[in-house]
Amino acid sequence: MAEISEEPPNPIPPQPQHTHQPSESTIRKAKPGLKRLTLTLSVLVSFIFAFPFLYKSVEIHRAPLPFREIDSLSSQIGSSNNHPSLSFPCHFQAIFVNFNNSNAETLESLIFDELTKLTSNTTSQCSTLSVKLVNSGPIWSLIGAVDFGNGDESVDEALAGVLGGEKVYSVVVVKGKSEEVKGVVGKYRHGWVVGRVSEVEAAERVAEMFVKVFVNGGKEEGFIHGEFMPVGADGRIVLSFNLLNSNPHDWVYDWDFQAIDDTLLAPIIKALGPVANISVESQVLYHTPKSSFSFWDDKRKGYIFSTKDLPFFVNSNEWHLDTSIAAGGRSKILQFVVYIPSAKECPLLLQLPNGEISKTNGFISPMWGGVIVWNPQGCLKDSESQHPIRQTISRQDLQKVFEVFMGQFRQLFGLKSDSHYFGSSGTYSLLASEKGFSEWELDFLARRHTCFNLHSCATTLGSLSRLVQSLPRMIIMDEIGKQVKYSLEAANLAQRNASLGLYDASAVSSRQARSLAEDAFFHPSIMSVSYYSFEHCFAVYSH
């Protein structure tokens, strides 16, 4: 087939390009004048003067924190609460009556050996020990005139009149003719041992009373962990006393709490003032059944609940105990409950693991409080009426209840609730104080809380320091800087007071140091940044 060729289309003729040639009238022939220079300089000067204000408007305010002082405090206090590097001087004196004065050096050597043996095996609160042996002089003469067979309370008061002037722990050893050796720890800062004892046995008893009782508070260890300290982060304790009527259709009981508060609780609160700021409140609740079950025992003629039922005894759904205004704060609330059972389970008795019935009919829950089951006299239902007559617990019964509460309160603070200490060298009777705590026990609590508070303060400030340095865009208010400064000052003051042997003053200062450190760390401005950081905002808005 023949191919048909077509002629190409006519090409488009090129268009002539026109270039714009400026005219001579539009060309500037002179250099820029003063007007433009003035305008440029004014803009530049305005920017220079406005730059500080612009920088200030976007600047992040960070109050200066003493990071070096915080690190120094952490290194001084130590990283472990069980081995604090605090210096508590403890002064002892041993007074021997009816011993041979020529053996004074031997007795002193034996006492130092026993002290070294005891302090090397256990953690001691006292890093500085000084022992003085007294076998002559006016004090020795006055003690020699004391009748140690006159009764423990009388002997305790007589020794207090002789030894109570100085803050020194004293042990009097009287060598007698009786084979029975008697050891007593008074309610002040002294104790005594009476009986036929040899020099070696006397040294062992003296050293054990010094270290195990006066220094460590009758405990094997001198310190306890922080989670078992019943004091709030702000140094406050709220004692909440609750009277629970399980079934008010059976009986309704009330109590004269104000009288107990004035006579029994006021001395305790005053004695524990250096350790914690304590406040008291009370309430009466109705329709508060327990959560656990009980069974009837014909032999004991009562309803029995065992120690295995204790975790289920407290009915958190029906017992509305947390009504305190401090419940939402950082104060520690200790609940003390008097539970009155209904007529269907009265009398209600607590059975111990050994099968015996508890004498106190109560129990404690660490860091929560204590419960006492109080059975009405005779357990007889007052009336079939739906509105029984309101009765008041007698003063005698109420005093017995609060004596049990006092023992529970001591246990919550880590002290013994019984009146005996069983040591390796013998048994010692512990005299009770009307304040609830003896003088040597208050010294022990002050030393222990000082160590814990300073350790907590150093840990909290160290965490705050690391947090601030890790977030350079975090705003640090001036209030936080002041709180950190005052916390460090209080901590340093507590250390100085501890080195001088001022136990109460060191406890107060350490409590302030811990409270201020907690206030700084949990400041609202810091918490908002910690839980809603800049990186979180950037991630949200970038998506």
Provide tags for this entry:
39% helix; PtdIno-glycan_biosynth_class_S; GPI-anchor biosynthesis; 18% strand; 543 residues; transmembrane; membrane; transmembrane helix
What does this structure look like?
This protein has 543 residues and is of the alpha/beta class. The protein has 13 helices and 17 strands. The chain has helices spanning 34-58, 67-77, 104-121, 138-144, 152-163, 199-215, 257-271, 395-412, 439-470, 478-499, 503-521, 524-531, 534-542; strands at 89-97, 128-134, 169-175, 182-185, 190-195, 236-245, 252-254, 277-286, 295-297, 302-306, 332-340, 348-351, 362-365, 369-373, 390-392, 420-422, 427-430. Strands 2-1-3-5-4-17-16 form a seven-stranded mixed sheet, with helices on both faces. Strands 8-6-11-14-13 form a five-stranded mixed sheet, covered by helices on one side. Strand 4 and strand 5 form a beta hairpin.
Largest sheet: 7 strands, mixed
Radius of gyration from the alpha-carbon trace, in angstroms:
38 Å
State the separation between the terminal residues, measured CA to CA.
69 Å
Order of helices and strands: HHEHEHHEEEHEEHEEEEEEEEHEEHHHHH
Mean pLDDT: 80
How would you sum up the global shape?
flat
Question: What would you call the structural class?
Answer: alpha/beta
Strand order of the largest sheet: 2-1-3-5-4-17-16
- Low-pLDDT runs of 5+ residues are 1-5, 222-227
Helix content: 25-40%
- Kindly report the oligomeric state of this protein: single chain
* DSSP strand count: 17
In terms of DSSP E residues, the strand content is 15-25%
Organism: Quercus rubra
Membrane topology: Multi-pass membrane protein
Subcellular location: Endoplasmic reticulum membrane
Main location: endoplasmic reticulum
